[in-house]
Amino acid sequence: DGTYKTTVDIKNHNYNVGTYKVHAYMYSNNGLTDSIAATSIII
């Protein structure tokens, strides 16, 4: 359905707050990559 989800532990980012930019990439079997989504979130 086009939905993607991940969990990120903020302690791995020194508990820094602010705007985080998120990019999703697709990797094909022939080694090519393509950006499929991008967004940002304020923590």
Overview of this structure, please?
The structure is a single chain. The chain is an all-beta fold and 43 residues long. The protein has one domain (10-42). 0% of the residues lie in helices and 44% in strands. The protein contains no helices and 2 strands. It has strands spanning 19-27, 33-42. A two-stranded antiparallel sheet has the order 1-2. It holds the Pfam family GBS_Bsp-like.
Please provide a brief summary of the model:
The chain contains no helices and two strands. The chain is an all-beta fold and 43 residues long.
Which characteristics define this entry?
two-stranded antiparallel ribbon, Bacterial Ig-like domain-containing protein, 43 residues, mainly beta, 44% strand, GBS_Bsp-like, single chain
Global Rg: 13 Å
* DSSP helix fraction: under 10%
Please list the strands of the largest sheet in the order they lie side by side: 1-2
Tally of DSSP helical segments: 0
Strand-residue proportion: 35-45%
Structural class: mainly beta
**Major sheet, described briefly?**
2 strands, antiparallel
The tally of strands reads 2
Unreliable stretches, pLDDT < 50, 5 or more residues? Answer: none
The best one-word shape is: elongated
Total domain count: 1
The sequence of SSEs as H and E is EE
Overall pLDDT: 91
Distance between the termini: 27 Å
Protein name: Bacterial Ig-like domain-containing protein
Organism: Enterococcus caccae ATCC BAA-1240
InterPro entries: GBS_Bsp-like
